[in-house]
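Researcher: Batch entry, complex prediction.
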Amino acid sequence: MINYSTPEFLIERDRNRCIDCKVCVRQCANEAHSFDEEEQKVVSHDEKCVACHRCVVMCPTHALTIKRFPLEFRQNSLWTGRTIKDIYMQAETGGILSTGMGNDKPYPIYWDHMLLNASQVTNPSIDPLREPMELKTFIGRKPDRLEFKDGKLATKLSTQLELDLPVIFSAMSYGSISLNAHKSLAKASQVEGTFWNTGEGGLHRDLYEYGPNTIVQVASGRFGVNPEYLNAGAAIEIKIGQGAKPGIGGHLPGEKVDWEVSKTRMIPEGTDAISPAPHHDIYSIEDLHQLIFSLKEATNYKKPVGVKIAAVHNVAAIASGIARAGADFITLDGFRGGTGSAPLRTRDSVGIPIELALAAVDTRLRNEGIRGSVSIISASSIRNSSDVVKAIALGADAVYIGTAALISLGCHVCQKCNTGKCNWGIATQNPNLTKRLNPEIGAQRAANLLLAWKREIKEMLGGMGINALESLRGNRLMLRGIGLSDRDLKILGINAAGE
Amino acid sequence: MLMREGDIRIPSGCAISGIMNKKGQVFSGGDIIKSIALMHDRSNGLGGGFAAYGIYPEYPDHYAFHMFYDDVKAKENTEYFFHLNYEMDASEKIPIRKVKGIGPGPIIWRYFVRPREEKLFELEMSEEDFVAKSVFQINGTIPGAFVVSSGKNMGAFKAVGFPEDVGEFYRLDEYKAYIWTAHGRFPTNTPGWWGGAHPFTLLDWSIVHNGEISSYGANKRYLEMFGYKLALQTDTEAITYCFDLLLRQHKVPLEVAVTALAAPFWRDIEKMTPEKREAVTAIRNIYGPLLLNGPFSIILGSRNGIMALNDRVKLRSLVAATKGDFLYVASEESAIREICAEPDTVWAPKGGEPVIGLLEGVDTL
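Model: Structure tokens for the complex:
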């Protein structure tokens, strides 16, 4: 069968600069460069390039450039090049198209249609360099009111997660990303006073020391779940769904299950790790209630237990049910959320944007008078600190970041996480690749990102005349919409710019 | 046409002043008018008002409803509402004096009423909850009717104009109270609606307030979960309900309410004793949505006394003084010296540090 596929990228090698040192050959796990023994020079293979830029960054003479491959299909708005190539690929293989990272389609990005407020004259803005500016955030179940007896606190609060900034590293399993990536995130969260999430692949023995900054996940495959694991973390998150692939499970291919992954996941080496689409002990909300309390029993009611769901059409009602089922926090994962691997069609067309889901859930829980009792963590498509501020103003207690965290470790968003050939040592278990990510440097970079965002969030808060984050939470008067329909504004619960 | 408070959110700056006698001895409104008049330049003629406690000794157990009506129809509807729900022992026009600085206003009326026993029994509500509910009902469902105040042996008097003119208009020199608070308003935009002036009241609570709260949106949405309807969209209304929620509904001690509204910084909380740290951390965690962020100085009045409070970084001026049995608080020291030239003590309270004046023999507001 003729292979109809054509390269996506063009590798340009400046022969005046190239010294045929073979660095690019050694760096590319996709084998887009090779050394021609006969010609005694390095040559490139465009069709294998994924535009991860590893060779470009490592080339000592800056001889390499990657460009979009100039081959044009005839102009057609319906049958674009990508659409056509997808069909070629399926016609060859009969397979489900698989991809990595979040939805890259040009759906509206509501963060970019919301603008923040600032103080002028009638109240002063506050300079964070001169005045205290507080970002402390608590995640956990909260009573409606506090009781005092003889002037002393008589209400006992359940355990809360205490964050120095409202940003947590999102669930990414060991297996989908490397141990060095896990180490980097764990260490960074400890340095900056926040948390990281194990994802569904268990917690590697070496990382138990980071337990106080760890959220351990329990997903449908129950990989790596045992009493010690549950008690090692600061909180437990039941993963029902993921924004990138709502309604379906996961599949870690056997070749990524090496000895370490196998031990951590508690499965035989080299076997596929398949997470079922549903939890087979949760077919209803009352079943979820039981799992929440089973986990609380297993941990002596000392750990907050949260539930993560993908943002789907009926998300507000589902979230209300989860709050009433006893969850201490609810994680909402929007349809642009990242993934180590997902079926392309599901990733690109199932679920709803996090901004609308977050606003709808916050509004719904407030209308029912229960928003105060449960925390909301908003996940997916947070790119920078102003996205964080907007999410908090819409109603989130904190946000998860996944892709942004990986980018801080060096990820170039080439969307090939599913191939296991990550040249940056992040989404791979190949020891030759994982050693490229030094966990000390990775931790420093991820911590720096958090520190930078902390500083920026303080600047924006101060500009609004606010010196504690709780005064921004759900404070939608600090947002104005731009370029949105009346219906969008209504769902977001914000006024239009100029109103 | 400009929109009223309630249709739109209007920030405003202001002057405030308060006087109380700790022994409960009553005195005329002359002093408070002089005090607030001195700060004339802090208001712009678009609102002034007073709250007075102890003015109706002949009706100590009746709820004194001060009402504004846009028209006769609103008055009839409200009186019918009272008839259904309350025993009414007096109903009269609030006496006024024509003053040049005060333009045409609403119909101003007051009623001395008690909730009907059978209504309380039927709804299984306390008197205070019933009255508070009535206030929300009248403001929310009877067009053209607005409850100015609804406490016992107290009343609020307010109008569009400079506060000294408002005082003269309502003949406050003829009333005697043991607590007076006053407010002069500088709104950034106004429809000139009398109901929008301060003080804002609910039951015995009254608030005069200077500032603009950046946390309004967070405060409002939290209060709404507890059934409060923020009809006016003003900071003062929100602050009143914050206190009502904490002190009357949740029955927390006054110092807890102060900690919630003007919270200490985490860096200071870390230095507290473990027991105190746990309590304050819980207050900030649970009542964080009630933190009033941004500049404010307020005087909260109740039948038992007053409390003056600044925001936690003191972004608005507030001065306090004592002389004998009298406690004075005002936006400016000059406003105190104007009526008490030689106070025993004068100080500027720190941000978040309340000045509490209680009547002798009571232990909370």
